Amino acid sequence: MSPSDQARFDNLYQQHVNVLKLQGKAPATVDAYARAVRRITTYFDRCPDQLNRRDLQDFFSALLQTHSWSSIKLDRNGLQFFYRHILNKPWQWVDIVKPPKVKTLPDILSPEEVARVIHHTRKARYQTYLLCVYSMGLRLSEALYLQVSDIDSARRLIHIRAGKGAKDRFVFLPDRALTLLRHYWASHRNPLWIFPEGKSTALRRAASKPMDKGGLQKSIKAIVKSCNIHKHVSVHTFRHCYGAHLVEAGVNLRAIQHQMGHACPKTTALYTQLTDVTHQDTSVMINQMVDRLAFEIISCDAVAS
Question: Coil, strand, or helix at residue 98?
Fold first, then answer.
């Protein structure tokens, strides 16, 4: 781009970021929508306000060859926002790119497989983390960013702050998970984080941020592979297992929806085809489910953990 075009783009891009923040978009959304504008600008080496309908079609056709539909949808939404709110131009995105509606069901581990993965986890921080995700149905970041002050051991509750949709919620804390959390936290005693970064006790105690997300995901995949489990498993799989296993245990769907922080009951209903669900004591059912897991607690010494 010429210097004048670059200056115009810089101005439009900053407006885009500012409006996203002013509308209260989540940081992840701001990053994704801003990245969409940067990506198309780099692709054409032109300021986006100079692009026409054919340019957009060519861009998404090329993007389809290298990125998933989830990435394409984010770019589509980001550019739609940019056109509407910054350029004040109409854009009929349905006519340009329309991702297919695909309904897939995630792979689910049996309770025995969940126990096998947790049992074969050789590092205390990963074992404790996995039990938290499974026993409370947490999302990856919800567990990763747990703070000491979020644990209400007296009421057996954990305060999940700014979950999906920037919503707080309280989830039931199983006795076994509380025991393991105490056991692991006592090994580093970081004043803020439950799962601080660092390879040694001293580093974890002084850490100012939690474990690395990428390293955590790679480690979990390696652990699952070592267990000779060939299903498609990620950290999020253990959250799905939580929902599915509670349904199998007969826990009320409304209670499961509350525990998992689902905005829509239809999301929770994906875990079951049951139509007659009885009301039961959710805390008792969760404790029974988690207590059935057979695994050995890992030592939290500085070297082994």
Answer: coil
Cα dihedral: 136, 139, 144, 150 (round 10): -50
214 burial type by CB count under 10 A (0-12 exposed, 13-18 middle, 19+ buried)? exposed
Residue 196's DSSP bridge partners are 210
CA triple 259-263-265, angle to 5 deg: 80
DSSP 164: G
Give the pLDDT band of residue 301 (cuts 50, 70, 90).
low
**Burial of residue 236 (number of CB atoms within 10 Å: 0-12, 13-18, 19+):** middle
- Model confidence pLDDT, tens digit, residues 24-41: 888 888 999 999 999 999
Q: Which domains does the chain have, with CATH numbers?
A: 3-95 (1.10.150.130), 111-291 (1.10.443.10)
Q: 45: which 2 tokens?
A: 């080496």
Q: Quick check: pTM over 0.70?
A: no
